[in-house]
Write the structure tokens for this entry.
Amino acid sequence: MKADFTARLALAVGMLLAAVSVALATADGPDFFMVRGVAADDVLNIRREPNPKAEKIGEIPPDGNGIENLGCEGGLSFAEWLDATEEEREASERRTWCRIAYDGIEGWVAGRYLEESAQQAPANAAEQLRWSLTALNGEAPVAEAFVAFAPDGAVSGSTGCNQFITSGSFDGRILLIDGPVTMTKAACPSEALASQEKAILAGLQGRIDQVFSPFSRELVLSNPDAGVTLRLSPLSH
């Protein structure tokens, strides 16, 4: 497995941060934004109302950063974003407007030109390579479990019953796990825990869709072939 697995993980999550960070209409978003997708010879207009025809009251340069988030509207919730098609997500971005404060001006800007500020935000989520299982197919886990990503491509963790290790790689928003699984052989003490282990191992094989929320810091891994969805939260190193 290639040694740049961590860089690929950072890129994959970074792409999701940009796509999701302003598509979600919530007051719990990032504290600060930075500009994205504006040409070097253009500006991002600040308007008095959340409308492209509203009066322009200011502008932000294409490299603007430290833009205070006062709340966004018009987008999808995180749950809606997970279920939406690409077309629906793009339409949501076009509808999203964010109230901001920048250089002494308060007003509205088109949300599709904003992303979470790398300077003002908490530590990059991509650096959090160990993730705790918080839900399995919508239900709380019966025992603590986690998944970890290593720079050499190893994907390891605990099912709550046994330890495991395999290998994988990222291809955009897809996590590909195709390596053989090596694991301990302890007998699970309950049928519920054995079922949890079976589901986790099935979910971590093949092509897996991954979505990251910058608001909840939650990573969702969905394996449609196995019918398994894992919701994970970052653990400290």
Notes: Residues 125-234 form a domain with the Lipocalin fold (CATH 2.40.128.270). The chain has two domains: 31-116, 125-234. The chain is about 20% helix and 35% strand.
